[in-house]
C-alpha cells in the first residue's frame, strides 16, 4: 500500500534501510531526503516525491497542446508552457510540405496537439506523426494546473470518459495543462469546461468519479 | 589599609557593579527579552500568476516573494550553459516606510539582491536547467528593519513552492548587539536610533535547516566571543523560523488534499 505525506525540501522521508531514492529525493548518511516540495510516496522500496506545484516538466511520450510562436526555415517553434519552447521539424509532419509555404500548414498563433519524442540539451523535439495529433481548427482551449492533469484523466481515462459522455464533446487533455474541448454546440463546450474546472478544484477528494456522476445527474434536473 | 588601595577597590567595585546593573537592566524598547524574536507568520501561494510565491512577516516587517521559472534566460549572453541561474531582485515599496522612498533600484537594493542570491545559491539545485533562469522577485510591503532576512525567508518558501529542487530550506535571522548585550532580531529603533554606550551592531545570518551557514554580514563592532554567542542565539532562533516556514508550506497543500 502506498503511504503519502506532504514533504518540504531537506526533510527526511524515511530512515536509511533497504529504500531506494527515486525522483526528487536524495540518499544521505542517515536516510532519504526530499529535494522538492510535494507528496512523498513509498512504492515497495522506492521512495519518490510527486511535485504538486511549479512549471510543467516535459517527458518523452507526453501529448501536449502548444501555440506556434515562430516559423523557421525547417519547422515551427512551439510554446508548450514548459521552461523551454519545443521544436516541430518539417520532417515530423505526416504529409508533404513545401518549404516556402510552412505558414500555410501552421501560422504564428495557431494551436496544435503535438507529442514529445525527444528531450536533449538543445531543446524539446515534438512530432505530429501519431493518431490524434494536428492543428486545432475549432473548439475552445482552457488551462489548468498541469499537476492536476492525472486526476482530470482519471484511472485509465475514466474521468475524462465520463465528462465526454455527459457533454457530447471531444476532449483532448494535454499533459502541460492545456485542454482542448470541441463540441457541436457552444453550450456543450461550456458545460464540459465547467465540469473540468470542477474536477480541478476538487482534485484530491476521494471517490471523485462517483461525485462527478452525481454532479452530472444533478445538473440535468 | 592604605587609603589609596581602598579607593581603588571601591572604584573597581563600582565599575563591576555598574557593569552588572547594565547587563541586568538592558531593556528593549519593544519590551522583548534579549533572545526573543518578533512574532512571525508566513503564507504560501499568495500570487496566483507566479509559479511559486510566499509572504513572510516578522513584527512590522512584511516581505512577499514571487518565483517565475525556470524559463529561458534573457539576455542570451548571460546564459550559463552548464547550469541554471538564480536571479533575485529585492525592492522596497515606496510606501513601506514612514517617509516615502523613491521607487526603483538603488545602491542598497542592488546590494541586497546580490546578498539574497548568495544566501540562496548554496541550496538551490539548478544543474538540470542549463541555459535557464529562475527569477525571484522580493518586495517589502512594510519595513521595520530585518528586511533582508524576511526577504530570504519568503524567497526560500517561494522557491520550494515553485517546485525548484533544493538541498534544504534556509532560514534567516538578524542577531545584534545593543551596547554590550547580544540580542536577536533588531527592529528599526534598535537598528538605527539606539546610541547608548557602544551603539548597535546588526548581524544578519542565514542558516540551512541542519545548522550550516549560507550567509553572514557584520555591520559594526563586535568581538570574536560576542560573535560566537550571537551566532549560537541566532541558530536557535532559526529553528523557530524553519518550523513556521515548514508549516506554511504544508498548509498550502492541505486545502488541496481535503
Order of helices and strands of chain B: HEEEEHEHEEHEEH
Q: Count every beta strand of chain B, where a strand is a DSSP E run of 2 or more residues.
A: 9
Rg over C-alpha atoms of chain B, rounded to the nearest angstrom: 21 Å
Counting helices, strands and paired strands, the structural category of chain A is alpha+beta
Largest interface: A-B, 23 and 34 residues
Q: What order do the strands of the largest sheet of chain A run in, or round the barrel if closed?
A: 8-9-10-12-11
Instruction: Give me the Rg of chain A, rounded.
Output: 20 Å
Q: How would a textbook summarize the main sheet of chain B?
A: 5 strands, mixed
Short description:
The complex is a heterodimer of chains A (221) and B (258). Chain A has helices spanning 102-105, 149-153, 158-167, 186-201, 208-220, and strands at residues 4-7, 12-15, 20-21, 25-28, 31-34, 38-43, 46-51, 63-72, 75-79, 86-89, 111-119, 124-127, 134-135, 140-143, 170-173, 178-182.
Summarize the structure in words.
- The complex is a heterodimer of chains A (221) and B (258).
- Chain A is α+β, with helices and mostly antiparallel strands and 221 residues long.
- Chain A has helices at residues 102-105, 149-153, 158-167, 186-201, 208-220, and strands at 4-7, 12-15, 20-21, 25-28, 31-34, 38-43, 46-51, 63-72, 75-79, 86-89, 111-119, 124-127, 134-135, 140-143, 170-173, 178-182.
- In chain A, the strands form four sheets. Chain A has a five-stranded mixed barrel.
- In chain A, a hairpin with a 2-residue loop joins strand 8 (63-72) and strand 9 (75-79).
- The longest helix of chain A has 16 residues, at 186-201.
- The mean pLDDT of chain A is 90.
- With 258 residues, chain B is of the alpha+beta class.
- Chain B has helices spanning 3-25, 107-120, 147-161, 188-192, 224-257; strands at residues 40-44, 52-58, 61-72, 85-92, 132-142, 170-178, 181-184, 200-208, 213-216.
- Chain B is globular.
- Classes of the chains: A alpha+beta (221), B alpha+beta (258).
- Chains A and B meet through loops of A and strand 3 and helix 5 of B.
Amino acid at each position: 500500500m502506498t503511504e503519502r505525506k506532504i514533504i518540504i525540501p531537506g526533510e527526511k522521508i524515511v530512515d536509511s534501510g533497504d529504500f531506494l531514492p527515486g525522483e526528487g529525493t536524495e540518499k544521505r548518511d542517515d536516510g532519504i531526503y526530499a529535494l522538492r516540495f510535494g507528496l512523498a510516496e513509498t512504492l515497495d522500496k522506492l521512495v519518490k516525491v510527486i511535485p504538486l506545484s511549479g512549471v510543467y516538466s516535459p517527458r518523452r511520450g507526453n501529448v501536449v497542446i502548444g501555440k506556434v510562436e515562430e516559423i523557421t526555415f525547417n519547422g515551427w517553434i512551439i510554446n508548450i508552457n514548459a521552461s523551454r519552447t519545443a521544436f516541430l521539424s518539417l520532417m515530423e509532419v505526416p504529409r508533404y510540405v513545401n518549404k516556402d509555404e510552412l505558414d500555410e500548414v501552421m501560422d504564428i498563433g495557431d494551436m496544435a496537439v503535438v507529442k514529445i519524442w525527444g528531450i536533449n540539451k538543445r531543446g524539446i523535439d515534438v512530432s505530429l506523426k501519431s493518431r490524434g495529433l494536428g492543428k486545432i481548427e475549432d473548439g475552445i482551449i482552457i488551462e489548468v494546473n498541469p499537476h492536476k492533469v492525472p486526476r482530470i484523466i482519471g484511472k485509465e481515462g475514466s474521468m475524462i470518459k465520463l465528462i465526454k459522455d455527459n457533454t457530447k464533446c471531444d476532449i483532448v487533455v494535454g499533459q502541460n495543462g492545456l485542454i482542448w474541448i470541441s463540441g457541436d454546440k457552444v453550450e456543450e463546450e461550456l458545460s464540459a469546461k465547467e465540469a473540468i474546472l470542477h474536477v480541478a478544484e476538487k482534485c484530491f477528494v476521494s471517490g471523485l468519479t462517483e461525485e462527478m456522476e452525481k454532479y452530472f445527474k444533478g445538473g440535468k434536473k | 589599609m592604605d587609603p589609596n588601595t581602598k579607593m581603588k577597590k571601591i572604584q573597581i567595585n563600582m565599575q563591576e557593579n555598574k557593569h552588572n546593573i547594565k547587563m541586568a537592566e538592558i531593556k528593549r524598547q519593544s519590551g522583548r527579552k534579549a533572545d526573543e524574536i518578533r512574532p512571525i507568520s508566513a503564507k504560501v501561494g499568495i500570487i496566483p500568476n507566479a509559479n511559486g510565491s510566499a509572504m513572510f512577516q516578522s513584527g512590522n516587517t512584511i516581505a512577499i516573494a514571487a518565483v517565475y521559472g525556470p524559463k529561458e534566460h534573457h539576455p542570451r549572453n548571460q546564459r550559463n550553459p552548464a547550469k541554471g541561474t538564480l536571479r533575485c531582485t529585492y525592492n522596497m515599496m515606496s510606501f513601506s516606510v514612514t517617509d516615502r522612498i523613491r521607487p526603483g533600484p538603488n545602491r542598497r537594493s542592488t546590494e541586497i539582491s546580490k546578498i539574497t542570491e548568495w544566501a540562496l545559491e548554496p541550496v538551490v539545485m539548478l544543474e538540470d536547467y542549463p541555459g535557464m533562469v529562475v527569477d525571484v522577485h522580493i518586495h517589502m510591503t512594510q519595513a521595520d528593519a530585518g528586511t533582508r532576512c524576511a526577504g530570504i525567508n519568503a524567497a526560500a518558501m517561494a522557491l520550494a513552492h515553485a517546485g525548484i529542487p533544493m538541498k534544504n530550506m534556509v532560514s534567516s535571522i538578524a542577531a545584534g548587539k545593543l551596547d554590550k548585550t547580544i540580542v536577536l532580531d533588531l527592529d528599526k529603533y534598535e537598528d538605527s536610533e539606539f546610541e547608548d554606550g557602544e551603539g548597535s551592531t546588526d548581524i544578519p545570518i542565514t542558516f540551512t535547516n541542519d545548522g550550516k551557514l549560507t550567509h553572514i554580514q557584520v555591520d559594526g563592532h563586535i568581538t570574536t566571543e560576542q560573535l560566537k554567542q550571537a551566532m549560537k542565539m541566532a541558530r536557535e532562533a532559526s529553528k523557530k523560523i524553519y518550523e513556521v516556514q515548514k508549516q506554511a508550506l504544508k498548509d498550502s497543500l492541505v486545502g488541496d488534499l481535503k
